[in-house]
Amino acid sequence: MAVRKSPDEWAQIEREYLSSDDSIREIADRYAISEAAIRKRAKAKGWKRPVRAREPVRTLLPAPRAPQAAPAEPREPLDAGTIAENGRQLAARMLDELDTMTSYQGELEEAIEIMTANDEDESRRNAMMKAVSLPARSQILKNLATSLKTINEAAAPAKGKKAQAQDRAAAAGRKFGAIGAPTRTIN
């Protein structure tokens, strides 16, 4: 059965809750009390804890770029060419990311093994390994290629079916192509 805390102990818990960077779990362990009891008391008494800044986690991957600030003023609608160029740049960045992931494949797999070594169930490890596997990366590449193709087709000026057929024929040097210089000479 839990032992009731004296008002002095609750005053110390409140002080630590409001001022220290320790987690609620650490405070609860120190005073041999449950986290739920501290949370209940904090809610009942209206204790407001300052938001703690989290330390960045160190990974094997390169640090992400800082996000660009959003413009304050509303922008004009973008034309198809600008949208297509933005799409191409995004696809290029994603291809770079895929290249980096492929370059660090061994390190990623080792990190996954280390992180999941103590797991009783292998489902998390298997899911993580599947996410960095060759088939997953191949699918990403295929999707990016399809996206680039769609972007390029959408950005191209629209032509009718007849004009497209003529362009294809001209490129292949077949019938219905543009009239050019004669290709045979008669002696």
Summarize the structure.
The protein has about 190 residues and is mainly alpha-helical. It contains 8 helices and no strands.
Question: Can you give a write-up of this model?
Answer:
The chain is mainly alpha-helical and 187 residues long. It contains eight helices and no strands. Helix 4 packs antiparallel against helix 7 (134-155). The longest helix has 24 residues, at 80-103. The N and C termini lie far apart (115 Å).
Which helices and strands occur, and which strands form pairs?
Blueprint: H1 7-19, H2 24-30, H3 35-45, H4 80-103, H5 105-115, H6 123-131, H7 134-155, H8 161-172
Helix pairs in contact: 4-7
Number of helices: 8
Provide the succession of SSEs: HHHHHHHH
**Main β-sheet description:** none
Strand pairing plus helix content: what structural class? mainly alpha
User: What is the first-to-last residue Cα distance?
Assistant: 115 Å
Question: What's the helical proportion of residues?
Answer: 55-70%
Outline type: elongated
Radius of gyration: 31 Å
What is the strand tally?
Answer: 0
Strand content: under 5%
Poorly predicted spans: none
Mean pLDDT value: 80
